[in-house]
């Protein structure tokens, strides 16, 4: 729902109503910012109720907001979801605390819509019938920059996903977020029904379901399984391979040509490693080829740094080649008087 609100209203409007700081308190506490009355984050009840009111257009009716919620979460799951009406009715019969939280939001003008309608919509949201598979598809959609790999639908923009997963990493496990970050190291969100999802962008989306909860409202067996998976599969967020091993596949001389072969997804640190490799090894060979055949993507910073090192080679008298059969580099012209020859394979470079 946080992702849908960000996509519908924009970052500034959502942040004006809901903060992104860990609360350090239980999920059902008020947890307000002192001077504004904003909920501390969107992962606790106070924040989640407010977020529900921000889904859809500002003038949406409760029915339109409900349909936006249903269509959005269904798009994340890859199938049309349904509300468990019996659970919804039961929860509304005892929703006094959430109604009180909503009224507290109104006293600060944080929630301005019909409060009962907002709590009813939020309760229906919480009563959606989902399976562990649905949760896993939702998680992998978050891990895949908002693109559902099952349906191929771009549910929300990638920039929204970065914000959501960041807040998950600091606030998603309620008042146990610090322990989770150190022990498991996977951005996650738990629910008091026993569901738990974890997201590592570009790697994996995980989900478990087991109803028994600990004192923080998190699934006991879900936590145990995530701890095991994180350890066994080296999925901790801070468990990264050395940059030299991750980016530079080889650095060799072939037929008098210095060939630096790259691989994977290249960002700032990887591009810095490329520059170091070239500066420290290029000396005798008059021609240098940078091979990006095995590169999946370059972010904007890496792209600029790659063009910069090619320009430097060219201006220093080297003949620069870029082996790019898949057009990974959209505009290889280094500019500034530099020159590069783009080829499809090493065999196209004259010896």
Automatic annotation (TrEMBL):
<comment type="subunit">
    <text>Homotetramer.</text>
</comment>
<feature type="domain" description="STAS">
    <location>
        <begin position="247"/>
        <end position="351"/>
    </location>
</feature>
<dbReference type="InterPro" id="IPR036513">
    <property type="entry name" value="STAS_dom_sf"/>
</dbReference>
<comment type="similarity">
    <text>Belongs to the glutaminase family.</text>
</comment>
<dbReference type="GO" id="GO:0006543">
    <property type="term" value="P:L-glutamine catabolic process"/>
</dbReference>
<keyword id="KW-0378">Hydrolase</keyword>
<dbReference type="InterPro" id="IPR002645">
    <property type="entry name" value="STAS_dom"/>
</dbReference>
<dbReference type="InterPro" id="IPR012338">
    <property type="entry name" value="Beta-lactam/transpept-like"/>
</dbReference>
<dbReference type="GO" id="GO:0004359">
    <property type="term" value="F:glutaminase activity"/>
</dbReference>
<protein>
    <recommendedName>
        <fullName>glutaminase</fullName>
        <ecNumber>3.5.1.2</ecNumber>
    </recommendedName>
</protein>
<dbReference type="GO" id="GO:0006537">
    <property type="term" value="P:glutamate biosynthetic process"/>
</dbReference>
<dbReference type="InterPro" id="IPR015868">
    <property type="entry name" value="Glutaminase"/>
</dbReference>
<dbReference type="Pfam" id="PF01740">
    <property type="entry name" value="STAS"/>
</dbReference>
<dbReference type="Pfam" id="PF04960">
    <property type="entry name" value="Glutaminase"/>
</dbReference>
């Amino acid at each position: 729902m946080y992702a849908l609100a960000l996509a519908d209203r924009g970052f500034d409007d959502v942040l004006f109503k809901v903060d992104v700081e860990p609360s350090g308190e239980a999920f059902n506490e008020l947890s307000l910012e002192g001077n504004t009355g904003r909920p501390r984050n969107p992962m606790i009840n106070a924040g989640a109720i407010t977020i529900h009111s921000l889904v859809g257009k500002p003038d949406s009716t409760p029915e339109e907001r409900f349909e936006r919620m249903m269509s959005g979460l269904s798009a994340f799951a890859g199938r049309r979801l349904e509300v468990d009406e019996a659970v919804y009715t039961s929860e509304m019969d005892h929703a006094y605390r959430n109604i009180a939280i909503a009224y507290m939001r109104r006293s600060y003008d944080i929630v301005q819509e019909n409060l009962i309608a907002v709590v009813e919509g939020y309760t229906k949201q919480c009563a959606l019938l989902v399976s562990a598979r649905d949760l896993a598809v939702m998680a992998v959609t978050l891990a895949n920059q908002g693109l559902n790999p099952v349906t191929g639908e771009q549910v929300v923009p990638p920039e929204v996903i970065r914000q959501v997963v960041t807040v998950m990493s600091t606030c998603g496990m309620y008042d146990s977020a610090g322990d989770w970050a150190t022990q498991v190291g996977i951005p996650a969100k738990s629910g008091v029904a026993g569901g738990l999802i974890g997201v590592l962008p570009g790697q994996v989306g995980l989900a478990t379901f087991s109803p028994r909860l600990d004192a923080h409202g998190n699934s006991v067996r879900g936590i145990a399984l995530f701890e095991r998976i994180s350890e066994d599969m080296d999925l901790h967020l801070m468990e990264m391979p050395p940059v030299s091993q991750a980016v530079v596949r080889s650095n060799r001389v072939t037929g008098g040509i210095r060939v630096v072969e790259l691989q994977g997804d290249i960002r700032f640190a990887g591009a810095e490693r490329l520059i170091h490799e070239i500066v420290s090894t290029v000396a005798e060979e008059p021609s240098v080829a940078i091979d990006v055949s095995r590169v999946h993507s370059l972010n904007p910073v890496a792209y600029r740094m790659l063009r910069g090192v090619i320009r430097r080679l060219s201006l220093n008298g080297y003949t620069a080649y870029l082996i790019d059969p898949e057009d990974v580099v959209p505009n290889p012209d280094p500019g500034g008087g530099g020159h590069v020859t783009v080829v499809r394979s090493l065999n196209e470079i004259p010896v």
